[in-house]
User: Fold these one by one.
Assistant:
Number 1:
Amino acid sequence: YAYVPSVEPDVQIVLDRSVAFNDQSIGVEIIHINPPAGKTLTDRASVVSGDEEYPIDITDGTTVVNRPGVWKVKVAVYDGEAKIAESLSGMTVKIGVRKAYVTSNAAAIPVFPYATPETAATCLNDVNALCIDGTEIELDAGTHTVSDRNDFMAAVHLRGAGRDLTWINGNGSVLKSGVFYVNSSGFVMENLSVTNFYRTKGGAVSLLANGGTVRNCRFAKNELHYAGGNCAGMAIYSMGANALIENCIFEELAYD
């Protein structure tokens, strides 16, 4: 990815590598092409998301960023202390977490990025944005009320403390789009119960990637309301034949 700054035409910033990352690190390599003759230039890079900006070390091509999120890479070229070129990448880098915790205790004080049971998030929706392939989310025993639909685009492992212990409340008629909208065949949900969802089409869980696993779960006291057109799903809607639904309980499901 090459970015040509407008500040000084004979300096070109080439962002050679910016998506080789794991759970909390990204790699960035910067190359100058045609620097001004007789000048010694230095590179300074940072990651930017909204109003947040953190410097990153590009001397060895790797850095650690302490705040997961979706970032853009900004690179500047300096002649001494004078900035002569700067470029913000058009691409984004997502830095996620390997494990996050969610508590049903509304009085708990969450601490980003929710890496321990003591610093757990109080809402599943807050953790969702941090997910990458391989992220594990642990929900404690109790009732978790979701504030909005959770869209999972990565191979996330969502685990409760047991289907008789961990309940996800779909918030009744307030939430009309289901609870989980999954677009990854590697998604796994297990050991929890989903209740009180209302949907006009599709299930509380929609598996849209021709795969996914729902194991040891309960779907209870949920409603599906027909709103015209095709009506599919009840508790679970699966697109394709490769989803695995294993050892689940379905009870008191209403349809009209």
Number 2:
Amino acid sequence: SSFTIDTTPPEVTSSELKFSETNKGIGINSDSSIQFWSNIIQPSFEFESDKNCYFTITSVTDASISYTSDSGMPAINSLINANTPMKVVFDALGLNQTYTDLKLTLTDEANNINIFDIAQFEIDNTNPVLSIVNPIPTIINITSPSIIFSCDEIATFEITPVLSYTLPVDTNIIIGDNTIIFDLSSDSDQLYNNYIIKVTDRAGNFTDLNIPDFTLDRVPPTLEIVGFEGGFTNLINIENPQFTFKSDKKGIFEI
């Protein structure tokens, strides 16, 4: 009779870690940094092997990690055929927790074993914490006012309704203070109210920060002389004449 000596361990030929249609990627990744952020607590993991094999997914730091076969997939403990997708769905993962040591172990029919690192990810359902550090004054006459606010997470932002800005040059938010310089491009007076900075972290959690109302005042005040005690003549005999005028805006004056 004949027999085969097989000392070649199984290899993963394709893999995918999926949190959503827009948040997915290669599932086997030995990079030692976080690759995915999500607030989805039941991501799926799919792989194919070049050999018939059994598999397990384990974690040293989280011994309670568990998963189930996705619909239409073989049972967890069954032999998985070569070049055939196997997809599992993780049972509810811990909120606000990182998963950095998940391992996929493949064991073929000759008991050859190969262990692979699953891409690191973080389950995050906490909204960013925002606060205004330096607001825009309530009345301004410049078209490039700035607002400074702080954020406790790496994130992105958008302004609603849309309001143009020149800084930052992208939509990225850093941990700490962030400055937005607006581009109002107006020569008329205008009230800016009900504007919101929406900040979204890498897991999709978001917080709205209200921009305090402010007025862009670009039109000079209109003045009108009402009266001048002693009359409008070059010579008067009053030491403290009274000059009266009116303005269509509040302000300060100097002579």
